[in-house]
Amino acid sequence: MPDSTSKTTVTDIPSEQPRRDERFHPQPIEEKWAAIWQSDPLLYAADPVTSARTKYYVLEMLPYPSGALHMGHVRNYAIGDALARYMWMRGYNVLHPMGWDAFGLPAENAALKNNTPPREWTLKNIAAMKQQMKRLGFSYDWSTEVTTCLPDYYRWNQWFFLKMHERGLAYRKKSKVNWCPECATVLANEQVVDGCCWRHEETKVEQRELEQWFLRITDYVPELLADLDKLEHWPERVRTMQRNWIGRSDGANVDFKLEGTAGPAGDKITVFTTRIDTIYGATSIQLAPQHPLVTDLMKRNPALEIDVAKLTDEQRKAKEAGELGAIEKHGVKTGAFAINPFNQERVPIWIANYVLMDYGTGAIMSVPAHDERDYDFAKKYDLEVRIVVLPRRTEEPPEAGDAEENILPFTSEESLLINSGDFNGMSNREAIAAMTRFAEEHGFGKATTTYRMKDWGVSRQRYWGTPIPMLYCEKCGIVPVPEDQLPVLLPEKIDITQQGGSPLANVPEFVNATCPKCGGKARRETDTMDTFVDSSWYFYRYTSAKLATAPFDSDKANYWFPIDQYIGGVEHAILHLIYSRFWTKVMRDMGLIKNSEPAQRLFTQGMVIKDGAKMSKNRGNVVSPDDMIAKFGADSTRMYSLFAAPPDRDLDWQEQGVEGVHRFLGRVYRFVVKHAQPQHPEWTGKVPAQLSPEARAIQRKLHQTIAKITHDFDGRWHFNTSIAAVMELVNELYGAESAIALGAIPITLLADVQRKLILLLAPFAPYLGAELWSVLGETSVLLKEPWPQFDPALAKEDEIEIPVQVNGKLRSRISVPADSSEEFVRNAAFADEKVKAAMAGKEVVKVIVVPGKLVNIVVK
RNA sequence: GCGAGAGUGGCGGAAUUGGCAGACGCACCAGACUUAGGAUCUGGCGGGUAACACCGUGGGGGUUCGAGUCCCCCCUUUCGCACCA
Asked: Model confidence over A338-354: pLDDT tens digits?
């Protein structure tokens, strides 16, 4: 241990001060136990899959090795660790692993800054953070540690990539991509936030045209969406975010024939609409500026070119600014027409900057009367607004000349079609079904589902990532690296540059290769994989971390999966959690696993904030875990992060709060040190059935506390109230000091309550638990001790206080035996002097007796 | 604009099904122990009153014997989504 973490030690206290109380110094205690625990590498190892115990896989999201843990990590891991320890004590076979999401850009940036190779920098950070985790006492099985930047891990990324390529799930295409000039690389759509890079919130993302590798996540979109409904133990918030991200939209594609001669782009325009029922109100067609037909139209009408360039430019700028939603709508009339297949009407074709090529078909029918955007556009360019749907408030068609702005039903559920030929009189819903059927029958349309989600672009023009195992042969074209040549190793010696393009392209030894098909010259793919590939399946690797012949052993994975409890930040609600669901489904289809979803339960903890704001270096409100450990110890730091707020809410870090927890642990420590008498002949004896009232009170509180905490673990996870309950128990014990001094508490009970108190505390404060367990004369490993059972009979109150209300207002409290009859409680209430006074001279109308809760007397 | 949370003492937060509002902790106040206290122990601590009464869970209505909790309307706030056709 570094000296900096032990500001105070036992030896600081001069021994010639005998009057001084036994003080609580966590540092030496924690360091002692940390050393003991580290000497036993199997302490937290799970049983083999043949175990007779029920499996429980508890997992916290693995960190990026930035160099130091922050409080968010501590909170995340404190929750997982408490759960893991509890499940161990409940007798489960617990898998509780940890690893490192170790590829990524910061390593390259650090390399530029400090002239340290990314690998060295990363491994150094991992070592430092692992040390912090050990100091915090987290119960990880380090024998299953996974580090994604090491070849024994990333070779399986490559293997999966090849398998996906075989299955047609990995493909290469030229496309518009999001480019972060700061990162000098491509970003996935999921990594663009408000038009800016997720890593550089100030940097606008540019659009570039590049050849990229994609994973066909869209093949799995219907299942990814449908299975969200089965994830009932995931937060609704996360499921909603994923639903929005997937963005399912049910509608129809409808073909509008082009008037005149067809060009290379065909003789029709296919539009996607969710409101086919409004098609009789379509008064124009709007094309995205990039629509293939636009080229044909420009040939016919070269004057368009300037306008189209302008529209394209406006759209690109708006997209880069993240303000696509606020774009000033512009369009240009092409002079061409298309035919509405429902009524054979000639409809003018426009090109508009608010129509996007990458959604639907890149062409829409514009219905100004029933779509706000179309309406704005129509007003601007003076296009016809034709009402075809009315709210169903009357069977009558609208009078000609009705003020259109007032009655425009942009969306209306209970509605009536008008001006729509044979479909007049139908409701909205009926019309959508009938008109889609009509279009299908006549061959000009089809029911279609469109998704907002796109395929996952995984190419990155960076060095510190998994090399994509592909070759480009002059003769054979794209050739996958044969499986037996994996891993494609990342070269160690490399100049990192911030220039555009892949750094690997500058390493001839890497780039130049032989084609495995023809033996001729080939060039290696120099892009690396998005680091989200690494984290998409890492939790499977934990089940067989050292396996050299496969990504994991399917039998082991099938034993451990799905993860019983996954815990992490809500910031991963979309990226990581959707990619890893996709990966799981692909692996299932490959026959590697049986589960379709990675995690049974997901818990997203709240953020740790300080002074009402997120901790950040800029704000200067960062609290370092190391400082907290040095001041108050790991137990107090961890326990405070569980005590200060329910785990799903944001937590405002207050150092005085940590001090309070530290004070509490000191109280526990002093009590046990004072009252432990393991050498006493009756120490391990049975608690007598008959107890004095004082002893009975302690016993009752103990069993109530066990019940409360067990209940919290099995249910709501409100550890703040669990810890409060332990505090109450300890307060009760301090309150009994004089009774103990008088010998009114049997030594057997005193032993029992202390043992169970330590067991209850163990998931939250493992160091103090271990220390006091040995103070009590126990030699077993606390973690493997059974969780205390509560006896409802012992937890029951003998006498209870019942509030008595008169007309709903509290007037008195009566004390009655806990099992009193309703009659008895009622009579006791009426006999109470204060109640009598409140009722004086009034007539009793009604008496409500809630057994064990309260009495309410209604008088008049 | 749409969707999901949240709003309770000076502060963090309790109140699992409608049943004593404020558990537990922090801060503060007082006392004890002490050469000393920033240690420890004990007590107090929503407003109000001499004490009662009374008033108090963002605001306004409602249901109920009884509402922080259920229903309706509104305000504030956090987060997510947002020309997605």
From this structure: 999 999 999 999 999 98
